[in-house]
């Protein structure tokens, strides 16, 4: 990661999404290998078999979908850029939000307006703050048309309660906003029987699109593929057509062999489903242990519920950090990352306040330094008892304890 002062801000040095740190599932390797000889490109928006697999994926989650209402692209950023480009208008986002969302909006020459999230979770804006911000922005000549949110969040690793998702959707509907729900992390929920994920498309079937990046849970990050579900309405049809125009103009298509692996993963055969469940369980156990280390040292963090990360607020340790010359999130990113030997992107990356001492910690680096160690963590009955996992957690605890 670039760490010089000059390199802090550019998008190209932004933090990647937290990686699983696990070997690629052999089942997926076989599918990709079998398709490696295909030379025909996928059409913009994805071929029929990939889109049909997306329909089956959403059908298992209670969202009946037709192939003509689905589009695929080479990863969520390319697909979201095309969708926002087709829809038009300014975009409302929660604060904090994924590091790549705001650059997408600005790249299109649109304005991004960040709205605070509720105290108990991230991913969705506070509904009252959303309405007030939309009113103010329009009074000042802005043109907010889209609300971008997440029901399983990066960076906060939280799952908004259904009632908060419902209230945010009601606020968006009353403000005339189209909702784009990034659900890439919904299949990484640590306790799926305890934390219910509610999609805005269930509440606003005519006014919400659903975006899923398969690298969230189903595919390796190096095999980029994502799908988006549009409303089955005339406006949804027009939006999909406009999205395909942008994908075509930019050449943003899914590679043929990857499309086959993506369709296979979206069908969630036993091996894929079992790996996703086991990985979510592993990262959940390690994230909970890291959360305990942070709280023991006097830091703050919402209990992690999904993903491969957690969001730590070290503001209570400000005096101890100041002894090391750390006064903002940028400096915290450098200082903590150097001591842990892993990227710890500061809150400024996620549109958070620079003065708040917040960082996103990924659980992947805590699983071990080699593929063998990480696989051992995946298959262990209690990964927290493995020496290399315990050592990583102890290092985190000792670094934070030194700030007391």
UniProtKB/TrEMBL annotation:
Top-rank taxon: Bacteria
GO molecular function (one): transaminase activity
Pfam families: Aminotran_1_2 (PF00155)
Residue intervals of the Aminotransferase class I/classII large domain: 37-193
InterPro entries per the UniProt record, alphabetical: Aminotransferase_I/II_large, AspAT/PAT-like, PyrdxlP-dep_Trfase, PyrdxlP-dep_Trfase_major
Protein keywords: Aminotransferase, Pyridoxal phosphate, Transferase
Region (Disordered) location: 1-20
Cofactor requirement: pyridoxal 5'-phosphate
Family membership: Belongs to the class-I pyridoxal-phosphate-dependent aminotransferase family.
Protein name in UniProt: Aminotransferase class I/II-fold pyridoxal phosphate-dependent enzyme
Annotated source species: Streptomyces erythrochromogenes
